[in-house]
Structures are given as C-alpha cells and as structure tokens.
Design brief:
The protein is an alpha+beta fold. The chain has helices spanning 11-20, 28-31, 103-111, 116-141, 168-183, 194-200, 204-213, 221-228; strands at 34-37, 39-44, 47-53, 63-65, 89-91, 93-102, 152-154, 189-193, 232-236, 256-259, 274-279, 284-285, 289-290, 296-309, 315-319. The strands form three sheets. Strands 1, 4, 6, 11, 12, 13 and 14 form a seven-stranded mixed beta sheet that branches. A five-stranded mixed beta sheet has the order 7-15-10-8-9. The chain has a three-stranded antiparallel beta sheet with strand order 2-3-5, with no helix packed on it. Strand 13 and strand 14 (296-309) form a beta hairpin. The chain is globular and about 65 Å long.
Length: 322
C-alpha cells in the first residue's frame, strides 16, 4: 500500500467511519468496549507506538487477537508497525485498508458529475472494516480455548434451545452462578445471534417467565433480558459482508456469550471479559488521493487498535444452542 507524502483527514468521512462502528446489529463493542489509549513516548523509524499497561486494569496477561480476516475486506490489512507480546503490555497495531477506484472509472464519474461516488467507496470500506472488527471479536469470544472448561456448555439433543423441552432460562441462570462462583461478580450482558433471540422469544419457558414477570405485552430486548435474568441482551442482527459474495450469516454463529463487561470506571478492581484498545483519535478516513504508482485513486482508512480478551472466567460460552 503506497504511502503518500501528505495526507489530509476528511472530517466528514471520518465522522461516518466512526458512526458506522455503532451500526445497528454490531454488538462486539458492547461485549468488549472500546478503551481509548494515548500515544507513548516510544517511536521507531516506522511510526509511533501505542501501548496499554494491563496492570492498570488489574491483569498481568491477555489473549490478543489480530484481524486475520481483513485480507478479504477491501484491500486487506497492512500492519505497518511490528509488535511483541510482553507480560502486562499490549502494543496496538496499525491497520490501513482502502477502497480502490481505477482512474478510468474516476474520469467517467467526474464527467457525469458524480464525484461523491468516491466518498461512497470510503463509506462502503468503513462498513466492511467495522464488520471485520465485529467478526474478530466474535472469533475470540466463541473460541472454547479462551474459557475455563467449566465455563463452556455445548448443547445437544433436547437441551438445545430449539427444543421445547430445553430450559434456556435455567441454563442462563446456572451460567450466571458459575461466573459468580469464579469471579464474585454477576455477568451483565448476554450476546445472542438474531436467530437465537428470535427462537427464545417464542420458547415456552421464556414466554412463561415473561408472563409471570411482565404480563402480556410487546416483547422487546429489555423484556427478554429480564426473563433470562440478565441486565441486558445484545442481539447480533448484522450479516457478514464479503465483497462480491452473498451474505453468509452472523459471525457469532450458533453460539451465545454471557459476560461481565468492563465497568464504567476502568480503574474499578473488577474482573471483566476484555476490551478493544484503540489509539485516541482513530479510526481516520483520509482524503481520497491518486496513487502516483498506478492509475487509480485510493481512499484509505487508518486505525490503531488491538482486540484483547482478558478473562474467560468472567464469561460463559453456550455452543450450538439451536
């Protein structure tokens, strides 16, 4: 990916890039909230470094996830700064993805007075990037190895929530008790793929619980959360999007994740599942520029971030729930 001599931030497009991170259906940053970090004093010939001291959050180790799947999004991920894993320290990684438009296409668009199409390429790339972040969070949160063995339950037979004889209300309450026994905290968030939430809304035991606690009325996310005994549910409604390919389902698969999320006060000594550490001011959308080495225009998006899974004991994984 070429490095241009001067790069100017497009404020309008940057606001759209950041806004898309909150797109309806993207729930990853509810599970692993974004923590803004500052640049440290260390720099090398390839650019600044951003680090996070995990001791600030009460941890001395972590599982760090890179966005492996970004190669199929836009032009892929281009980490420009190397990193090393050290106890207590997470070094953020730089990502650079871009929408490419051939010069010929640009000339046609300019002749038609449709130069805003270039901006639309950036918006589309931003949407794909945020979906890639969602997929990376889902990947770490649904990986069995990231949990203690007692914090994973694989459902089968009549235990699956698609079966009327199953008891998802009791399953969730048992999982809450397990996290409490491990951490001394009550998990506050349950992440559900849309198909799972849709099934639970009509599951006889969930419906019975709703009628007992709420009476008859519309079923919203808050009502479903109360029926299942959690503070809130996050329903993943967004499909994976790959350029040129049809939708292929949610990155959360057929799994549900119960977790204690980061408290509002990051210094509060309480265990939580993890976070997305991101450099202050990022991501950024740069002004589309002509590539001096090829007949094309590149509309880049830059980000410094790391997805960090801190504590599987503060979470519980339900696998193959339907």
């Amino acid at each position: 990916m070429p490095e241009f001599p001067t790069q100017h931030i497009n404020v309008w497009l940057t606001s759209i890039v950041r806004g898309l991170a909150l797109e309806s259906g993207l729930v990853g940053t509810q599970l692993l909230p974004v923590v803004v970090t500052n640049r440290d004093d260390e720099a090398n010939e390839r650019g600044p470094k951003y680090t996070v001291a995990l001791t600030d959050y009460g941890y001395d180790s972590a599982t760090v996830v890179d966005l492996d799947d970004l190669e199929s999004v836009g032009n892929g991920a281009y980490p420009l700064v190397s990193f090393s894993e050290e106890v207590q320290i997470i070094k953020l990684r730089r990502y650079h993805i871009a929408a490419e438009i051939s010069d010929e296409t640009v000339d046609i668009l300019e002749d038609l007075g449709k130069t805003n199409v270039i901006d639309n390429y950036v918006v589309r790339t931003a949407a794909l990037y945020n979906r890639a972040v969602e997929a990376a969070i889902a990947k770490v949160a649904t990986t069995t190895a990231n949990y203690p063995s007692t914090h994973v339950k694989t459902l089968s037979g009549t235990d699956k929530w698609s079966h009327d004889d199953s008891n998802p209300v009791q399953d969730v309450r048992d999982a809450i008790a397990r996290v409490w026994d491990t951490c001394g905290i009550v998990p506050d968030l349950l992440v559900l793929p849309f198909a799972v939430a849709n099934r639970l809304a009509v599951h006889p035991k969930v419906v019975a619980q709703i009628r007992y606690t709420e009476g008859i009325g519309p079923l919203d996310d808050a009502t479903l959360a109360r029926a299942l005994g959690v503070q809130r549910v996050a329903i993943a409604r967004t499909l994976q999007v790959r350029p040129g390919l049809p939708p292929s389902g949610t990155p959360w698969g057929n799994h549900a994740v119960l977790a204690a999320t980061m408290p509002g006060n990051a210094q509060e000594p309480r265990r939580f599942a993890g976070a997305v550490f991101r450099a202050r001011g990022y991501p950024l959308a740069l002004e589309p520029q002509r590539d001096p080495k090829a007949p094309r225009i590149i509309a880049p998006i830059r980000d410094w971030m790391r997805i960090t899974w801190l504590d599987g004991g503060a979470a519980y994984l339900f696998r193959d729930v339907l």
